[in-house]
Design goal:
Layout (H helix, E strand, L loop, with lengths): L1 H8 E3 L10 E6 L7 E2 L5 E3 L21 E2 L2 E2 H9 L5 E3 L21 E3 L5 E3 L5 H10 L4 E5 L6 H12 L5 H8 L10 E4 L12 H14 L14 E4 L7 H15 L9 E8 L14 H12 L1 H15 L6 E9 L18 H16 L4 E7 L9 E4 L2 E4 L1 H8 L6 E4 L1 E3 L3 E4 L2 E4 L1 E7 L5 E7 L6 E7 L6 E7 L19 E6 L5 E5 L3 E7 L1
Parallel strand pairs: 1-19, 2-24, 4-7, 4-15, 7-10, 10-11, 11-12, 12-13, 13-14, 14-15
Antiparallel strand pairs: 2-19, 3-18, 5-6, 8-9, 16-17, 18-22, 20-21, 22-23, 23-28, 24-27, 25-26, 25-28
Helix pairs in contact: 4-5, 6-7, 7-9, 8-10, 10-11
The chain binds alpha-L-arabinofuranose.
Alpha-L-arabinofuranose binds next to loops.
Length: 522
C-alpha cells in the first residue's frame, strides 16, 4: 500500500515541453493521502562557526544592538516568524570539541575553536543561552554531544544537568544557574561525522561507542516519555563513496541486532551541494551555466537518499528509525576578503530554487525522512539571515522556508505532472517540480518550483474528482539567476502575491521563470 502510494505521489513523465507546448499538466488527488510531512524537516543548524552564533544571534546583554538577554531582537523576531521547529547546536565539527561545562555558570572558560578559524571561543553562549534562544524563537532543542574528544560520562552529565527534575547535584546546579525546571531535549545527535572530523573512526568502532552513549546518556525529563521520548540520532553517511554504504550497513545491522540495553531512533545523513570541492562555485556574480550546474548537482541527493533508505529498509522495514538529514545545503567559495574558516557566502535566487527542490525531495520521502536541518541558520553557508553589526537582511532561502510553513505537519497528497525539460548546454533538468499536501489548517497546498531560468510555465491545474476554482498564494522570483538581497537593497528577492481563478472549467496558473510558488488550492 505504502509503495503504491509513493509511486503515485510523484509521476515524473519525462516528456519534453514541446509535446505539451508550454503547458504543464498537473493534477492533485486529494482523495488519497500519504505520510505526514513532519515539521521537523524544516529544522535549522547553528554551529559555533564564524559569526553564526557570536554576532549573528548572540551580541550579549550590554550590546547597543537591541537584544533580550543578549539575543538580538531583529534576528529572534525574523526566526519566530519562520516557525523554526528545531535547532541543531553546538555543531557540526565543533560539537566534538565542545565541553559543556565551559559554557555554564558565572565563570566561563575561554577556549579555542581550532576547526573554524582557530579563533577564541568565549563560551558566553552556552547551554542556558541556547535554551533561551530556542524558547524565544518558539523552537525545540537538537543537541549534538561530544563523542570525539569527550566521554560518555561528560555527555551523560550534560543531559542529566538539563533534564533531571529530581534534585540531583547537577539539577541543583542548573537551578543555581537560573533554570530550576528541567529542559526538554527532544533530539540528541550522538557524535558528528565520526568518519572524518569527529574522530576518523571505523564503522565498527563507532558502533561500539554508539551503544554506550545510547545506553548511558539518559533524558530524565518526566515530560519526555512514550511518543515524546528523546530521539537518539546515530552518525550516518556523508557521501557517495563505498565507505558510506559500509557505514550505514554497519550501524543499521548493529541496531537490528540490538539488545534491551540500548536503542536509537534516528540515523543522520549529511549532503552538501558542491560543484567541485577543490574549486567551489562563487555564491555571487554567476551566470546560467553555474545556475544549471548547481541545480543538477543538488538533484543528485535523490540517488544518495535512495541508496541509504534502501539499506535502512532492509534492516528496518517498519521504518522505526528516522533518516535525519541534519546538514544539507549549498556550499560555495568563501566571499573574497572573508576568513575562509568562517564559511561566509551570499544567498541568491539559485539557493531559493535549490532549497525548494531539497524540501520537496524530503517531503516525498516523508515516511523515512522525519528531521532535516539546513546548514546553517545565520551568516554561514546557505543561511536564512545575514548580519553585519546592527544590520540584518533576509535571504531568498529564508523566504522559501517561510512560504513552506503550511507544509509543516501536513499530510502529503499525490500530485502527478509532466515535468517537461529545461536544458542549458549539455545539462538537462526537469522544468518543474511540485508537491501537494493537506495542511493542518485544512487547506490544500501546492508548491511548484520552476527551474527554467528563462521561461515562465503555464500550469494547467486539475484536481481528481473535483473542480478547482482558485489558487492563491505567493511566488518568489528575481530579475536574474544570481539576484541577491543586500543590506542596501534588501527586497530584490521577495515573495509577491500570485493567484488564478478557473475560467470555463480550467485553471491556468502562470509561474515565473526561476521561481518558487506556494498556493492554496480550492
Ligand atoms: O556545516 C559545516 C561543517 O560541515 C560541519 O561542522 C560539519 O559537520 C560538516 O562537515
Amino acid at each position: 500500500m505504502r509503495l503504491s502510494l509513493l509511486t503515485t505521489t510523484v509521476l515524473f513523465f519525462a516528456l519534453s515541453s514541446a509535446a505539451f507546448g508550454q503547458t504543464i499538466e498537473l493534477s492533485i488527488d486529494a482523495s488519497k493521502t500519504g505520510p505526514k510531512i513532519s515539521r521537523h524537516i524544516f529544522g535549522q543548524f547553528a554551529e559555533h562557526l564564524g559569526t553564526g552564533v557570536y554576532e549573528g544571534l548572540w551580541v550579549g546583554p550590554d550590546s547597543k544592538i537591541p537584544n533580550t538577554r543578549g539575543l538580538r531582537n531583529d534576528v529572534v523576531n525574523a526566526l519566530r516568524e519562520l516557525k523554526v521547529p528545531n535547532v541543531r547546536w553546538p555543531g557540526g565539527c565543533f560539537a566534538d570539541e565542545y565541553h559543556w561545562r565551559n559554557g555554564i555558570g558565572s565563570k566561563r572558560g575561554v577556549t579555542l575553536n581550532p576547526t573554524w578559524g582557530g579563533v577564541i571561543e568565549p563560551n558566553t553562549f552556552g547551554t542556558h543561552e541556547f535554551m533561551d534562544f530556542v524558547d524565544q524563537i518558539g523552537s525545540e532543542a537538537f543537541l549534538s554531544v561530544n563523542l570525539g574528544s569527550g566521554t560518555v560520562h561528560e555527555a551523560a552529565d550534560w543531559i542529566e544537568y538539563m533534564t533531571s527534575e529530581q534534585q540531583t547535584t547537577l539539577a541543583k546546579e542548573r537551578a543555581v544557574n537560573g533554570h530550576p525546571a528541567p529542559y526538554k531535549v527532544p533530539f540528541l545527535g550522538i557524535g558528528n561525522e565520526s568518519w572524518d572530523c569527529g574522530g576518523n573512526m571505523s564503522p565498527d568502532f563507532y558502533l561500539s561507542q554508539l551503544k554506550m552513549y545510547a545506553r548511558f546518556v539518559r533524558n530524565f525529563n518526566p515530560a519526555q516519555r512514550g511518543d515524546d521520548r528523546m530521539m537518539r540520532i546515530a552518525v550516518g553517511p556523508g557521501g557517495t563513496e563505498p565507505r558510506f554504504t559500509e557505514w550505514t550497513e554497519t550501524v543499521m545491522k548493529g541496531w537490528k541486532g540490538h539488545t534491551w540495553s540500548w536503542d536509537m531512533e534516528g540515523l543522520s545523513l549529511h549532503n552538501y551541494t558542491v560543484y567541485n570541492w577543490e574549486k567551489k562555485h562563487s555564491s555571487v556574480d554567476f551566470g546560467e551555466k553555474e545556475y544549471a550546474e548547481i541545480l543538477k548537482k543538488t538533484l543528485e541527493i535523490n540517488g544518495l537518499l535512495d541508496t541509504h533508505i534502501g539499506i535502512m529498509d532492509k534492516y528496518d522495514p517498519e521504518k522505526k528509525i528516522a533518516l535525519v538529514v541534519d546538514e544539507w545545503g549549498a556550499w560555495y567559495a568563501p566571499m573574497p576578503g572573508s576568513n575562509p574558516g568562517f564559511l561566509v557566502q551570499q544567498n541568491s535566487q539559485r539557493d531559493a530554487v535549490l532549497a525548494a527542490l531539497n524540501l520537496n525531495i524530503f517531503a516525498r520521502r516523508a515516511d523515512r525522512i522525519r528531521v532535516a536541518n539546513i546548514a546553517q541558520m545565520i551568516n554561514v553557508l546557505q543561511a536564512m539571515i545575514l548580519t553585519d553589526k546592527e544590520k540584518m537582511v533576509l535571504t531568498p532561502t529564508y523566504h522559501v522556508f517561510k512560504m513552506y510553513i503550511p507544509f509543516q505537519d501536513s499530510t502529503s497528497i499525490p500530485v502527478a505532472f509532466n515535468a517537461g525539460t529545461y536544458a542549458f548546454s549539455n545539462i538537462t533538468l526537469p522544468r518543474v517540480d511540485a508537491i501537494a499536501a493537506k495542511g493542518i489548517d485544512g487547506k490544500l497546498w501546492l508548491a511548484i518550483t520552476n527551474l527554467d531560468a528563462n521561461r515562465a510555465a503555464e500550469i494547467d491545474l486539475k484536481s481528481v474528482g473535483a473542480n478547482v476554482r482558485s489558487a492563491i498564494g505567493q511566488t518568489l522570483t528575481s530579475p536574474k539567476v544570481d539576484s541577491i538581497n543586500t543590506f542596501d537593497s534588501p527586497k530584490t528577492v521577495e515573495p509577491k502575491p500570485i493567484s488564478a481563478r478557473a475560467q470555463g472549467g480550467k485553471l491556468m496558473l502562470n509561474v515565473p521563470a526561476r521561481s518558487v510558488t506556494v498556493v492554496a488550492v480550492e
